[in-house]
Amino acid sequence: MAYSSMYPELVRFLESKKVQLVAVSKTQPLEKVQKLYELGQRTFGENRVQELMGKKDLLPGDIKWHLIGHLQKNKVKFIAPFISMIHSVDSLALAQVISKEAVKHNRIIPVLLQVKIAIEEAKYGFDPMLLEDNLSQLNDLPGIDIQGMMGMGTFTSDQEITRQEFQSMTRIYKETKANHFADVETFRELSMGMSGDYELAIEQGSTMVRIGSLLFNSIA
Ligand SMILES: *Cc1c(COP(=O)(O)O)cnc(C)c1O
Q1: Residue of the nearest CA to atom 11 in ligand 1?
Q2: What is the pLDDT of residue 118?
Q3: Which of the listed residues 1, 65, 199, 206 has the most CB atoms within 10 Å of its CB?
Q4: What tens digit of pLDDT does each residue of 16-59 get?
Q5: Pairing mode of beta strands 85-89, 189-192
């Protein structure tokens, strides 16, 4: 048996919940990514532009690549021609650069707004209190389609902390949708949940999970 039954089982579970899987392939060797591709996975996430650029041309061309980690403004130009979604839009300035590059390439790039929800010192993401001030300007940018939000919980074994953080993320997502995207059909994604907390995230309303280690560790 080359593969454990992890992937098909996970996919069946996620499909039953109508949750999309982003397979996080960062640090994984090409052969493992290829194996997951052969099992049917088409959406993969990377957190660093350099690693993504190195892998992309060596893997099948119909993979949908998602950028999930902090993105520096000067790296946007490399991914703008092909990226399927950017989960980590954490400032107005970054959104403006993505907008400019998207227009240059005649594309509409789907993006998510990353929000700081973790009680631990989180480096990246909009402060929920300040998000409101940026939304009208974000909403006016051409070339990007704001399709929802992304949040990361505190790295902890205390499920109660994670549950509360996911709950507040869902509340912020719903409020933002009601106040700014009520008529926008494409604003419907909440990217929340990783290997250690995806079940909790789905309980709290996640529509997209980003799972790496759990998935790839089950591939021989
Ligand atoms: C690495 C990473 C993940 C996946 O983490 P696992 O615990 O391996 O599932 C998800 N989201 C982001 C932003 C990451 O950097």
Answers
A1: 210
A2: 86
A3: 206
A4: 999 999 999 999 999 999 999 999 999 999 999 999 999 999 99
A5: unpaired
pLDDT at 3 over 80: no
pLDDT digits (tens, 9 = 90+) for 81-91: 999 999 999 99
Distance 54 CA to ligand 1 centre (A): 19
H-type helices in 17-64, by residue range?
30-38, 49-56
3: which DSSP letter?
B
Provide the token pair at 200: 């909790």
How many A from CA of 140 to the centre of ligand 1?
A: 30
CATH class of residue range 3-216: alpha beta
Calpha distance 141→22 (Å, rounded): 26
- For the segment 192-205, what is each residue's pLDDT rounded down to a tens digit? 999 999 999 999 99
Q: Please give all residues whose beta carbon lies within 6 A of any atom in ligand 1, as ranges.
A: 24, 26, 47, 68-69, 194-196, 210-214
- How far apart CA 62 and CA 167 sit, in angstroms, is 35
CB 48 within 8 A of CB 55: no
Give the mutation target among 70, 200, 210, 211 for probing the ligand 1 site: most ligand atoms within 8 A of CB.
210
Model's pTM, two decimal places? 0.96
Angle at 82 between CA 81 and CA 87, to 5 degrees: 110
